[in-house]
Amino acid sequence: MGKKQKNSLKLPLILIGLVAIGLIYWLTNLAQHRTPPVDQPDRPPISSPEVLRVKVYYANKEYIQTGQDNLPRVLAMEQTLPLETSLQKQAEELVAMLQQNPEDIQLSNALRDDMQIEDVQVKEKIAYVNFKDKNLYGGSLEESLIIQQIVMTLTSLKGIESVQLLVNNEVRDTLLGHMSIEEPISRESFSVRE
């Protein structure tokens, strides 16, 4: 064999040797970093934080369009809140959800975008929902649906039995001119079909 043929055989042998050494090194490290299945007890899978399932009520679009008394006026949409949230914070978050339009096309929000809820306070099992005195106009159906959405949603929380609607932090006769809001309103005030 000539010198040229010996040199041409050395290069592939060197490459094969380097690949083999690299493969052995990689397999050795892989085995060292693997956790032994027998020595460690099984751990439960990491679970998501616990949540509180709540209902947010919106106007039933079919009822609004047809006026059929056999249909429910409002329908519940299930939402979740962190379980460890205080009752005050839960009420605030539900009111914030009520101010958003529902994704379900069968639902409608009687709370118009131009109506502003300033805040909500929970005291002695009553949620006080304070509206700003702007754009508070509308028909009796709209007013009754707004009140029912708010009352049904907030009284679905354990710890809230009724809702007092306020305007500029004051008790008023009505919200939009049709239904009395002088006293706290409970969910029993509505005949609800769910």
Describe the structure.
The chain is α+β, with helices and mostly antiparallel strands and 194 residues long. The protein has one domain (51-189). It has helices at residues 3-33, 61-66, 87-98, 140-154; strands at 51-60, 74-82, 107-108, 117-123, 126-131, 162-167, 185-186. It has a four-stranded mixed sheet with strand order 4-5-6-7, with helices on one face. Strands 2-1-3 form a three-stranded antiparallel sheet. Residues 33-48 have low confidence and may be disordered.
What is the helix content? 25-40%
Number of domains: 1
Widest sheet: strand ordering? 4-5-6-7
User: Low-confidence parts, pLDDT < 50 over ≥5 residues?
Assistant: 33-48
Give the rounded overall mean pLDDT.
82
Output the radius of gyration. Answer: 33 Å
Shape: elongated
Number of alpha- plus pi-helical segments: 4
Report strand %.
15-25%
Query: Which sheet architecture does the biggest sheet show?
Result: 4 strands, mixed
- Briefly note the structural class of the backbone: alpha+beta
Helix/strand order: HEHEHEEEHEE
Amino-to-carboxy terminus distance: 95 Å
Report the strand count: 7
Topology of helices and strands:
Elements: H1 3-33, E1 51-60, H2 61-66, E2 74-82, H3 87-98, E3 107-108, E4 117-123, E5 126-131, H4 140-154, E6 162-167, E7 185-186
Parallel strand pairs: 5-6
Antiparallel strand pairs: 1-2, 1-3, 4-5, 6-7
Annotation keywords:
single chain, 194 residues, alpha+beta, 4-stranded mixed β-sheet, 3-stranded antiparallel β-sheet, 4 helices, 7 strands, 33% helix
